[in-house]
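Fold it.
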Amino acid sequence: MKQKFDVTGMTCSACSAHGERAVGKLSGTKSVQVNLLNGSMVVEYDEAASGPAAIEKAVADAGYRAALHGVQENMGRDSLQNPAMEEARQTKRRLIVSFCFLIPLFYTSMGHMLGLPLPIFLHGTEHALTLALTQFLLTLPITYVNDRYYKVGLRSLFKGAPNMDSLIAIGSAAALIYGVFVLYQLSWGFGTGDINLINRYASELYFESAGMILTLITLGKYLETRSKGKTSDAITKLMDLAPKTAFVLRDGTETEIPVDQVRQGDIVVVRPGQSIPVDGILVEGASSVDESALTGESIPVEKNVGDHVLSASINKSGSFQFKAEKVGEDTTLAQIIHLVEEAGSSKAPISKLADKVAGIFVPVVIAIAVITTAAWLLAGHPFSFALSIGISILVISCPCALGLATPVAIMVGTGKGAENGILIKSAESLEVTHTVRTVVLDKTGTITKGMPKVTDLLPAPGISEEELLCVAASLEHLSEHPLAEAITTETQARNIPLCSIEGFEATPGRGVSAIVNGERFFAGNAAMMKAQQIALESYASSAAQLEEAGKTSLYFAGPSGLLGIIAVADIVKETSREAIAGFLSMGMSVVMLTGDNRRTALAIGRQLGLSKVIAEVLPAGKEREIAKLQSEGSRVAMVGDGINDAPALARADVGIAIGAGSDVAIESADIVLMKSDLMDAVTAVRLSKAVIRNVKQNLFWAFFYNCIGIPIAAGILYPAFGITLSPMFAAAAMSLSSVCVVSNALRLRFFKTGRREDATSSARIPPLPEAAPSSLQPEPLSGANHPICTLTKGEDSMKKILSIEGMSCSHCSDRVEKALNSISGVKAAVDLDAKTATVSMEAPVPDEVLAKAVEDAGYEVVNVQ
């Protein structure tokens, strides 16, 4: 069983390492990961051997506190409590108080060195005791407001797991205690009149060091926690989109209720401009929905009855009602947040070295400080000098930078991925992705759109494209074949009316036929044409070119011979070519792996410049091909979308599922792309490289800082140059190191996807020869004698032009077109640029009827001509 716990009291990587060891020792614990950044711990354990109570006790015994993470049911803004920002607010209050007392403390202790005047009662040897007492009283409030360093640090020290707070507590306490010792020495000197004793200790007060250490460390903590709070900005932005309330229909009445009270099956009402509260299926109305916050797709998506709507997406136009399907923690938004939080809570393999060092870092630093202090004393230096060296070593050492180097970058990186519709399930997946050298791509639905589309129209001489499509769609619209659907879709897009048919017949494996105006027409493959003794030899060259390009040729013929050829293919997505070029530019090899026939696969491969294509592979075979590539020593990423891709996604070092694919594929993947856009896979690799590069920079700085800082603080430069490091400067350097690491990680917030708008298109097959072969002399389809002529010309139809406001994209124009075409006897064509709709009517239709259809779709008719 795997459970998440909220952990408090941990301040550095030494804390997290000790906490992990404490829980890891429990019987039945399989794995434990503490995330210092968001104060969480994920434990996988055997329920028969352990439980939440035992885990919480182990953490408490280690000196910290843990509580089982509660499930948030309310997905509104208030449910997201950012612990880092709350800590920043508390630290700010402590910082203000600290500076209010540090400024006069610093003035009284250092002002005379800068030539600043001191009050007469604080100046001179005769007032040394008063000066010391004043500094002591100014130090006490700073110590009091920052007592957490002592509470946490000393508790951890006494439990045998010293951390960063222990170093601060020991260092500042040593300065403070020595200052009190000096205070008593001065009192003894004044009491006994020992002027030598007074002169000896008057300049050895260390109260300002204690106050400065605590204040500067608090300043660093404030800057660090503010920066850490920004790492969850991506999640915060998503949460801001989720409405707190929803309008539901209950007992026929529309009621506004909190979103966490929405139940499955409720009918939810959404008006223009409102956010969708939960996931569901649209049951009434239509609209354009902005899903950019979830998928990264900037263009609104058209939604009609039966379509799915997602929580946190925004309704742009038109009111609609939908049936709630997924509520609470099951919504898409909640799942995205869960994935990002889980990825941020996980640990990348690269962080293991830092964790090992952090586990022994603090005890080693304490040992170094004690040994160094003793060494300087044995060398004959004053106790105050040796004490200053020891305090500087304790204060400058920074396990925080080591602990923050990886998790901050991982958190920002996964959040940035979520902003771009890329969901990374774990830190390990993010790290492994940057090592991938081979990318294997599924074809259907990944490289291609996954739905056939008309790509070429090759009408015979004397026949227009519209006439060819009219006959083709009239024959095919009763067929359920996907290729037939492509033809009817193309015909509808061109607003071409269909002929009435009768005597429809389907010949399995060949095609269909039907009677149009008393004559039989045929549609199908070459075998069907040959069976009807229709000569195709003169068209073999064009058909071969279509087949070579991976397209399927459909032949259409009538009583007078061949009417033309329509080519249908599963076309390549607009961004696939750019994505493959992106992979290649990063030095990766790209392989297309598909179960489709070899001819089509090779054609697509040639079109995209792929050097390796593996075709006609069954689902189990895909998994074997991935294993074969891995056996050649290559890290492999698999990108797919279907159920048949799930075994290969699971086998690959990194499985990347296209978001529009099946739930099984998404479950098997390490990275999920919310959009069906292959460029997002390229972005995921680039993001991985950027994050790991950032982590390496952070780790280098953390190790470099400590390797340089500790020897300088120990006085390595003193024998040659007479240079020592003041505890105050050591505290400033320590704070700066953590801030630098976090700030460097925050640079990932400015990561760019690297996309470029590059509209590419494939070359079309040249048209058929102008001269028809001698064996085929079709009668030109012009004039009223041809049976389909009057259906395509529409010369007697009435026309009107509507000026329309509110259309902003192709989805808008499609909605208006669909609304007008739903009126009986009306055919409409919308010009988005001109903001007009040209309407052809078989019978007069009132302007009010046309205007109402447009207005019901969510737009406004301003003029009818």
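The longest strand covers residues 448-459.
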